[in-house]
Amino acid sequence: MNHTDTIKDISIKLGQAPDLFLNESIRYYLERKLKEYEFELLSMKLKYQINTIEEFENLFFNGTVEESAAMDDFKKFDLFSYRIDEINEYLKQPS
To answer: The whole model's pTM is what?
Structure first.
């Protein structure tokens, strides 16, 4: 059974249109991922006492944090910030 058949089968059993079921499933998934990314970002903000990627960069420039020690977190911070923005843009769109 392929994904299209699975979606159609489940939506019929739930008495929902397949398109509505798929849209709500995608929205639910994105909202869950958004919370996950926001949690990870908040954890890093608290760890480094920063709010933005620019503030994170300043930690390196000021010598507050060694670049080699925090580069992975820096990359994750940037990635999570980007993903949060992308998901929020998608969620603003009408269903």
So the answer is: 0.85
Cα 35–Cα 41–Cα 45 angle in degrees, nearest 5: 140
Domain limits at 72? 3-92
Instruction: Give the model confidence (pLDDT) of 9-49 as tens digits.
Output: 999 999 999 999 999 999 999 999 999 999 999 999 999 99
**Roughly how many angstroms between the first and final C-alpha of the chain, as a whole number?**
27
55 close to 34: Cβ distance less than 8 angstroms = no
The per-residue pLDDT for 81 is: 97
Q: What tokens appear for 26 in the block? A: 């995608």
Cα–Cα separations (whole angstroms), residue 51 to 29, 55, 77: 26, 7, 10
Count structural domains, the chain.
1
What's the CA gap between 80 and 92, in Å, rounded? Answer: 18
From start to end of the chain, where are the E strands? none
Residue the block writes with tokens 């010598």: 63
What pLDDT, on the 0 to 100 scale, is given for residue 4?
87
